[in-house]
Structures are given as C-alpha cells and as structure tokens.
C-alpha cells in the first residue's frame, strides 16, 4: 500500500503514516537516506523539529517521488518551517494552487473518450508504460513497490510512469492502490508509432531469450513454401490471435505474458 502525497498538507504526518505502513526497519532506512540520526527523526515526528530542505530533498529518494511529488513534498516542508503567519499563508496558497491543478487535470482526463496523440506518443516510447499499466490489473501488482519488484524497474521510474498513466486516464488510483483506467489506446497499422511498439517488445524478447526459461515459448525458422501454404499459415495465425484474445477476455488477471507473432516474406 502506498500513500498519496497530495492527500497531505503536513509532511510529518505523511512521513509518519508511510513509516507505519512500511513497518520494521523503515525508520532506519529513512534516517539513512535523509542522512539524519534516528533520534532526530523522532523529534521531527513529534513536532519538536523540522527537516532542513536539504534533508527533505534527500528524503524524496526514500519515497520514490516523481519530480512533481518531490516538488510538493519540499513545499510542505517549507510550509512547516515558515516562521511567520504571512509566509505560512503564502505556502498554503501555493499548495491549494497545485491541488487545484491536479483536480482540473483529472476532470479533463475524465472528459476525454480516448488518449491524446501526445500521450499516445509517450506511451509507446517504451515497453515500460504498457507493462506498468497492465500490471495494475493484477491484484498482486497494484502498488508502486510491487510493480517495481515484478518488472525490475526502479521505484522512482515506476512512480513517474504511474503519474503519466494517471494523467492519461490509463490508470486510476483507488485509495491505497492503482488499477486499470477507463481510457484505452490502440494503434492502427498505418500509425508511425507501430514500428516503435513492435521494436520495444522484440527487444524485450531478446532479453528473455538470454534467461533460457523452459516455461517460455520461442520459435523462429525460415522456410520455403507455396503461396497457398503461406496464406494458410497466415490464416491460422490470425485465428490464434483471435482465440487468444477471447481466452484472455474471460480469464482472471493473474500473470503478465507477452505475445509476439511474426510471419513475413523475405
């Protein structure tokens, strides 16, 4: 379970709740990342001291914040350190402006029926976007940490991807976890992004081949055959794709698999 920084106006409460969720050893890890003593951390959590901006900046690494989240966390830290009412009011106003922008962005996404060209271009720039999105459909991989561990991507990177997917409506936040969104993205065969899409997953296949996992299925060959036989094979492959889509539609979300099929004339 991961907490949403935008649900907080007190960074100390955010730190405290996160440490409780992460459990044993979290305080030690936080203190090490922020380069502070655990005794000083206790003072911060009991409202007897504040993190310096340098310490708060280092703490961002502990949370795996995206750039926007890191910026918001630093603003919360500055608000807490403000020594005058007017300065605290300044940061309160800044916080409300950020939250309002977040709210407006969510409303804009909700109003769209499809992913924008700009979002689509970024989505297909790397295999990681689709992998993270589909992973959120599986109960075991609906938190930042679990997705990071499953896909072997840093928590910081997963956080950035989730932030983008949320903005695009491809993923939604449900309290303490993420899930597949209502938006969808599809490429026509004439899209200039098709090449990048296929290339992303072919490169992943090469990586998987090196693992030599007996449970994975890979087959490559070159053949000479008649035009009629070639058409028969193509028809069989099309039926296979349709059949796999039907099987997937009525199955439970439990595993992450990649299906890639190539059949072409040299």
Describe this structure in words.
- It is a single chain.
- The protein has 266 residues and is mainly alpha-helical.
- It has helices spanning 11-22, 26-34, 38-45, 53-63, 67-81, 85-111, 117-123, 127-135, 144-151, 155-168, 194-211, 227-249; strands spanning 171-174, 177-180.
- 61% of the residues lie in helices and 3% in strands.
- The chain has a two-stranded antiparallel ribbon.
- It is elongated and about 85 Å long.
- The N and C termini lie far apart (50 Å).
Keywords:
266 residues, mainly alpha, 434 Repressor (Amino-terminal Domain), two-stranded antiparallel ribbon, 2 strands
Write the layout of secondary structure elements.
Elements (H helix, E strand, L loop, with lengths): L10 H12 L3 H9 L3 H8 L7 H11 L3 H15 L3 H27 L5 H7 L3 H9 L8 H8 L3 H14 L2 E4 L2 E4 L13 H18 L15 H23 L17
Antiparallel strand pairs: 1-2
In short:
By secondary structure, the protein is mainly alpha-helical.
As for the CATH topology of the domain at 5-111, it is: 434 Repressor (Amino-terminal Domain)
Structural class comes to mainly alpha
Sheet with most strands: 2 strands, antiparallel
Overall helicity: 55-70%
**Integer average pLDDT:** 88
CATH class of the domain at 5-111: Mainly Alpha
State the helix count: 12
- Strand percent estimate: under 5%
Q: Could you tell me the number of beta strands?
A: 2
Low-confidence stretches: none
CATH architecture call of the domain at 5-111: Orthogonal Bundle
Order of helices and strands: HHHHHHHHHHEEHH
Strand arrangement within the widest β-sheet reads: 1-2
Shape: elongated
Q: What is the first-to-last residue Cα distance? A: 50 Å
- Radius of gyration, whole Å: 23 Å
């Amino acid at each position: 379970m991961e907490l949403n920084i935008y649900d907080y106006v007190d960074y100390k409460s955010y730190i405290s709740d996160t440490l409780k969720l992460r459990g044993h050893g979290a305080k030690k890890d936080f203190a090490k990342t922020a380069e502070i003593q655990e005794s000083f951390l206790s003072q911060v959590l009991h409202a007897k001291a504040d993190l310096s901006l340098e310490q708060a900046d280092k703490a961002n690494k502990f949370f795996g914040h995206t750039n926007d989240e890191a910026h918001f966390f630093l603003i919360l830290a500055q608000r807490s350190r403000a020594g005058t009412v007017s300065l605290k009011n300044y940061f309160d106003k800044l916080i409300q402006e950020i939250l309002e922008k977040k709210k407006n962005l969510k409303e804009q996404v909700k109003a769209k029926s499809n992913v924008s060209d700009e979002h689509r271009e970024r989505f297909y720039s790397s295999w990681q976007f689709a992998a993270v999105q589909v992973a959120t459909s599986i109960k075991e991989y609906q938190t930042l940490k679990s997705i990071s561990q499953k896909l072997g991507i840093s928590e910081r990177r997963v956080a950035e991807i989730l932030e983008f997917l949320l903005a695009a409506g491809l993923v939604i936040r449900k309290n303490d976890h993420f899930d597949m969104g209502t938006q969808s993205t599809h490429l026509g065969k004439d899209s200039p992004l098709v090449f990048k899409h296929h290339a992303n997953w072919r490169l992943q296949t090469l990586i998987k081949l090196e693992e030599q996992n007996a449970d994975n299925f890979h087959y490559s060959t070159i053949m000479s055959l008649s035009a009629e036989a070639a058409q028969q094979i193509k028809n069989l492959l099309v039926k296979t794709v349709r059949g796999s889509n039907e099987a997937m539609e009525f199955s439970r979300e439990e595993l992450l698999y990649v299906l890639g099929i190539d059949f072409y004339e040299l």
